[in-house]
Amino acid sequence: MADALPSELVGLLNAPDPAAREAAWDRLVDRHSRLLLHVARRFGRDHDAAMDDYAYILEQLREDGFRRLRGYADDGRSKFTTWLVVVARRLCLDHQRVRYGRYSNGKVADRAEAARVARRRLVDLLVENVDPADLVAPAEDPHEALEARQRSEAISAAVATLEPGDRLLVKLRFEDGLGAREIAQVMGLPTPFHVYRRLNTVFENLRAALRRGGVERAAT
Amino acid sequence: MNADLGTRTHLEATEVAAYLDRTLGLAERARAEAHLAECDGCRREVTEVSGLVRVRNRARGPSRLLVPLAVAAALVLVLARRDLMRSDQPLMREPGLVTAATPVPIAPRGVASSHRFLWSAVPGADRYRLTLFAHDGAVAWEVQVAETTATLPTTTRLVTGALYYWKVEARVGFQRWLASDLTEFAVSPSRE
User: Fold this and answer.
1) Domains, chain B, ranges and CATH?
2) pLDDT 10s per residue in chain B (192 long)?
3) DSSP designation for B168
4) Which of A8, A74, A146, A160 could be a cystine partner for A28, CB 3.0 to 4.6 Å?
5) Alpha helices per DSSP H over A131-191
C-alpha cells in the first residue's frame, strides 16, 4: 500500500492560517522542485520553456485552494511522488497545448509506421511462410489479398480474447515497440526475463487460437 | 476506478499512479490493463511516467551503499542549499542525474551457431558475470571473467531450436554490478 501522506502535504492541507499555509507550501515546493523540474525538462523545448512549464505546474497545483493536492489526499493509493509526476506531466502537456497547439514530438507518422512494422512482426511470429509485404501492400493476386486480410483479422480476434494483462503486453511490445526492460517496469514484472516468458506463453495461446480458427499455417 | 471506462475516457491521475505503484486491487488492475490495452494515450502516459520515475529513482541512488563520507557530503550540500534558499531568488538547478553505461550484449543474438558470448566493455569494470537462462528460467550456465568474451564449455549442451536468454553484469565497485538487458537467441543446427 502507499505510504502515509507526506508531512509537507498534511501540513499544507491542514494549515490553520494563511501564513502557515504559505510556509507549508514553501516546504512542499522545496522538497519536490527537483522532481517537477525533471518532468518539465522532459517536455520543454528549451530551458526557458521548461522553466515556464515548471512555473505553470506550481501555479496549477495552487489553484482553487490546492484542489489537485486535496484530490490526491482523498485517494491516497499511490506514492505522492508518482502521482506528482503524473500530474506534472499532464500539466506540461496542457501548457504546451495552450501555447503551441497540440503537443507533438514529430513522431506521429513514425508511430503509424512503427505500428505497421510491429503488426507484421507479430504475424511473423505466429504464422509461418507469410510474406510481411502482403500485409501492407496491395497484393497482385486477390486471393492472396483476401487470405492476408483474413489472417490479420484472425490474429486481431485472437488478441482480443487474451486476458487484459496479456493484451497490454502485446500492445506494449508490438504496437509501442517497448523493450523487455521497459515493459517489466511498466507492468511490474520482476525482470525482463519474465516478460519474455510471458510473451512465449501468449504466443502459444494465440497460435492455438489461430489453429482452432482454421488458420492452417499457424506455427506449431 | 473511473466509472466511465466503458465509454473510453481516460484513467484518472490517481489510477495511473496507483497502477505504477502496484497498489490497485486485482479487479481494478485488470480493468486498468484492459483500458491501457485499448487507449494509446493512457498507455503512452503510463510508459512515460514509468520512465520518469525510474530515472528519478536511479538518480537518488541505492541508499544502502551510503558510506559515512558520502553521508557527510550530502549533509554539507543540504546545509549549503538551505543557505542559498534564504535568498530572494528561487534556486533552480539541474538535477544531479547519474547515468552509468551498462554492458551491451553483442553476440549471440537471434539465431546463432556460435557459443561464444561477446559484449561491450564498461569503463572501470574489473569483472563480468555472464548468466545463461533456459527458456523456463532455469540457470543453464554462469561464469565470471575479466574479459568481454566467454565461450560455453562443451559440457554444457544447448538444445537446437530452443530459446535461451543471457545477460552480463559488469562489476564497477564494491558489490556494485551494472546489468545488461536480457538478450534472446536460438541455437541453429550448426555449431562453430
Assistant:
1) 5-60 (no CATH), 105-187 (2.60.40.10)
2) 444 444 458 999 999 999 999 999 999 999 999 999 999 999 999 999 999 987 666 655 544 444 444 454 545 555 545 544 444 444 444 444 444 578 989 999 888 888 899 999 998 899 999 999 887 667 889 999 999 999 999 888 888 888 788 889 999 887 778 888 778 888 887 544
3) E
4) A8
5) 133-136, 142-160, 164-170, 180-187
User: For the purposes of burial, counting CB atoms within 10 Å of the CB of B30, is it exposed (0-12), middle (13-18) or buried (19 or more)?
Assistant: middle
A123 touches B: beta carbon within 8 Å = no
ipTM passes above 0.85: no
Cell numbers placing B56: 528519478
Domain that holds residue A36: 7-100
d(CA B189, CA B187): 7
Across chain B, which distance is largest between two alpha carbons, in Å? 72
Q: What is the DSSP letter of B102?
A: -
Interchain CB contact of A85 with B (< 8 Å): yes
| pTM for this entry | 0.63
A positions 157-186 inside 8 Å of B (CB): 163-165, 167-168, 170-172, 175-176, 178-182, 185-186
